[in-house]
Specification:
Elements: H1 5-16, H2 22-41, H3 50-70, H4 78-107, H5 110-124, H6 128-136, H7 153-178, H8 183-211, H9 213-218, H10 220-235, H11 237-240, H12 245-265, H13 278-291, H14 297-302, H15 304-307, H16 309-316, H17 318-335, H18 341-364, H19 375-380, H20 390-420, H21 425-428, E1 448-449, E2 452-453, H22 461-473, H23 497-500, H24 515-518, E3 523-524, E4 531-537, H25 539-551, E5 557-563, H26 584-599, E6 603-607, H27 621-639, E7 645-649, H28 658-661, H29 668-671, E8 673-674, H30 679-693, E9 698-700, H31 703-706, E10 711-712, E11 715-716, E12 719-720, H32 730-735, H33 737-748
Parallel strand pairs: 4-5, 4-6, 6-7, 7-9
Antiparallel strand pairs: 1-2, 3-5, 8-10, 11-12
Length: 754
């Protein structure tokens, strides 16, 4: 008498499941708790290593299942394996993706919502890690709001591993068969092969962490050794059964303490994943090894932090909890910026519990995607994907088609928004900026030209300060143009056309990625103009460019743009935004100094952002202050006498990303930012260093352009000031035109358009 196909499939599924481990269930709780603590409270600092714990667990469990299936009399059906993965992972993931995208279109503007939809499409196909690796190394997105789906990167790593790992294991076992190995010999061979795989991918992780640290963090290749470590445990399981009880207890507690140490000592500055992921990975390996071989209730009592009912329940719902927590945090931050973290934690737990009990677990124990073929058909399907029932195939095809269409729609929306916003850069650059009426504030000494003295424009700061105060007191949003709700990812469509279209930063958007060669097409004004201004710096300098073009007469002025993404003029060794080496930066700096000397411009205008994590030395605090001060002084010493006049504009204070804070339910107060702590001290340090290097430098503190009494609004009049957290919008820069004109007045009087 034969069993029905569905019953046989259930029997295979039960046979494939490893013996239940209370300690691993509790270990999942430790991992997810560390991740939640890091995301909600920024504590523990190394809580992100909880993901590495999940990787080791996954490698162990999946390899246990695969080795058992491949070596069993019925042998492995890849269709069964992949169906189990789909039933386990996809339902909850799709629920979170769909809910997040829907909420994004309700809460955020169409620009950011479209970007989140694109993230969802990549995440649905388990390719999110490569999407976020690309955006994380893109300088254009350096100040962008974080995606509520960014945590899906780890699912991408795991699923890509699951896609390839069965084939690699089968190849190893086939090799063992060719060599006529015994079961013991097969396991020794597999251990050797997996150890080699882990060694190679770990060495690659070391290399990629140094050269492409952001990519390394998300990379499947740089993380594969962590899953491989768990796989080695699975292959070695028959030998681990013999471990003595005392060794298990000691190893288990050493592993647990090692995890606690990992979460405590690791930080955002740690080189990760290579080599520091070794600490949480080795600790997890010890914990799993200690409990392998069914040690019984005695071991469970010894490892009570993992095996108590609370830990086991959190571990049981850990997958759903991991999926839900990050969207909840992002939306809570946007809607309730002053709210404590506890409500977000409670909502995450509630959604995870509901998702587990009413979706994840029921689907896992349902007949969805269960095979309908017979045992004889199974023999013909060895190592082939099994055919799912027709309704399931149709549902899967519909879901995939729908999400693919959504992705194309997101790209179309993104393109349309870029074409339609703002009225912006190209047009506003042609609009003269009126100079406000004279005020009581003292103006700089007017410049003298042969035969005449032209009075400098009066200080427009009084009128601008009044506009800032009005913005701070506004209870509702005015009709902003451009509307922050329509900003695309990273505020791209609100940034200067010289950055986005002309590529004058030498970054991803450049015509030529070489920042030196890229300057050739970044000269603005009449080629026959008699006066030259050089704008030198990084993206902060670039963000001021629309203001310069708005106030300088192109018939008389040529503006030479010498800017490189993330490359400060200060003579400091630095890395790219993603942490990779930046050898082009000193080359560009040397070229700029030489070229400025050859050109001898009438005005050299400099601006840059002090991005402390970019220091190659890793210095922080006073050591970083000293490094920046010394580097700033040296560059001004080199530039002394190379221009007739040298001015330095201070960087705008860091702001709240308008795409994050300006929601459909927010008020101007939600986007208001307090002047960052230490901003004044850093400004004073930069001014002191600049004038020490060249006493003729005029350093201009721009704090009053953005803030009043330590409070900084996100807009002035009807214009949003920022495109992202660090860079001015093109329209915002143009609105500062009168202030820039006044700052230049000592050198440009009479040539300022008004």
């Amino acid at each position: 008498m034969s069993l029905p196909p569905s019953t046989r499939a259930q029997a295979r599924q039960q046979r494939s499941a490893p013996a239940f481990r209370y300690d691993i269930e509790g270990l999942r709780a430790v991992a997810v708790a560390a991740v939640l603590g890091n995301h909600l409270y920024a504590w523990p600092a190394g809580g992100y290593a909880g993901v590495d714990v999940f990787f080791v667990i996954s490698g162990f469990l999946i390899t246990t299942i695969l080795v058992r299936d491949i070596t069993s009399p019925e042998r492995l059906s890849l269709g069964d394996f992949y169906r189990r993965r789909i039933r386990r992972l996809v339902p909850a993931a799709v629920a979170v993706l769909a809910t997040t995208v829907t909420a994004a279109f309700v809460v955020f503007g169409p620009g950011r919502a479209a970007a989140i939809l694109e993230d969802a499409v990549w995440s649905f196909f388990f390719l999110g890690n490569w999407r976020f690796a690309a955006s994380g190394t893109d300088y254009l997105n350096a100040g962008a709001a974080v995606s509520p789906l960014q945590h899906f990167w780890s699912l991408g790593v795991e699923e890509q591993f699951y896609l390839a790992w069965p084939w690699l294991l089968m190849s190893g076992i086939a090799l063992a068969a060719v060599l006529r190995c015994t079961d013991r010999g097969m396991r020794v061979l597999l251990l050797a092969l997996i150890a080699g795989f882990c060694a190679l991918t770990f060495v690659f992780a070391l290399w990629e962490t140094v050269h492409r640290p952001t990519t390394a963090y998300f990379s499947t290749l740089s993380r594969a050794w962590e899953l491989g470590a768990g796989a080695m445990l699975a292959v070695a399981a028959p030998w681990l059964v013999r471990l003595p009880g005392l060794f298990r207890a000691v190893a288990g507690w050493i592993g647990l303490c090692g995890l606690a140490l990992s979460f405590a000592v690791l930080s955002s500055q740690s080189t990760f994943p290579g080599p520091w992921a070794l600490l949480p990975v080795a600790s997890t390996v010890l914990l799993i090894a200690a409990g392998t071989g069914v040690p019984g209730h005695g071991y469970n009592r010894i490892m009570w932090p993992l095996t108590n009912p609370a830990s086991r329940y959190v571990g049981r719902i850990s997958y759903s909890l991991y999926l839900w927590h990050f969207p909840v945090i992002v939306f809570f931050t946007a809607l309730f910026p002053e709210s404590p973290a506890l409500p977000a934690l409670l909502v995450s737990l509630l959604l995870a519990s509901l998702s587990f009990h009413f979706l994840e677990d029921p689907v896992r124990h349902s007949r969805w995607l269960m095979p309908r073929y017979t045992a004889r058909e199974r023999g013909r399907r060895y190592f082939q994907p099994a055919t799912a029932p027709r309704p399931a195939r149709l549902a899967a095809m519909a879901a995939a088609t729908g999400l693919l269409a959504s992705g194309l729609a997101a790209v179309a929306i993104d393109t349309a928004l870029q074409d339609s916003l703002p009225p912006a850069a190209a047009e506003t650059l042609q609009r003269p900026v009126p100079i406000p009426a004279p005020s009581s504030v003292e103006s700089p000494v007017p410049a003298e030209t042969p035969g005449e003295t032209v009075p400098a424009p009066q200080d427009p700061l009084t009128a601008h300060t009044a506009a800032l105060r009005a913005a701070l007191q506004s209870p509702e949003w005015p009709a902003l143009s451009p509307d922050p709700a329509s900003f695309t990812e990273g505020g791209r469509n609100a940034k200067p056309v010289e950055w986005i279209q002309d590529g004058c930063l030498g970054s991803n958007e450049a015509r030529n990625p070489d920042p030196v060669a890229n300057t050739a097409h970044c000269v603005y004004g009449d080629p026959g103009a008699s006066r030259d201004l050089v704008l030198y710096g990084d993206s902060v300098a670039m963000a001021y460019l629309p203001a310069l073009r708005a106030v300088l007469d192109p018939g008389q002025w040529r503006i030479h743009v010498y800017t490189a993404a993330g490359c400060t003029p200060a003579e400091v060794a630095q890395t790219r935004i993603g942490g990779a080496p930046y050898p082009e930066c000193p080359v560009f700096r040397d070229w700029a100094v030489q070229r400025i000397g050859e050109l001898s411009p009438e005005v050299l205008l400099m601006a840059s952002f002090r991005y402390e994590p970019a220091l190659s030395s890793g210095a922080t605090g006073k050591a970083a202050d000293a490094e920046w001060e010394s580097g700033t002084q040296r560059i001004h010493e080199r530039l002394a006498s190379k221009a007739q006049r040298t001015l330095v504009l201070g960087a705008p204070p860091e702001a709240k990303d308008p795409a994050q804070c300006a929601t459909r339910f927010s008020s101007p107060k939600d986007c208001e930012q307090a002047l960052p702590e230490g901003h004044g001290d850093r400004a004073a340090l930069e001014a002191r260093a600049a004038t020490a290097g060249n006493p003729d430098v005029r350093w201009i503190d721009t704090t009053a352009w953005f803030c009043v009494d330590g409070r900084c609004p996100s807009f002035v009049g009807s214009t949003p000031l920022y495109a992202d957290a660090y860079h001015l919008s093109a329209a915002g820069a143009v609105s500062l035109g009168p202030l820039v004109a006044h700052a230049l007045s000592g050198e440009t009087a009479g040539e300022v358009r008004g």
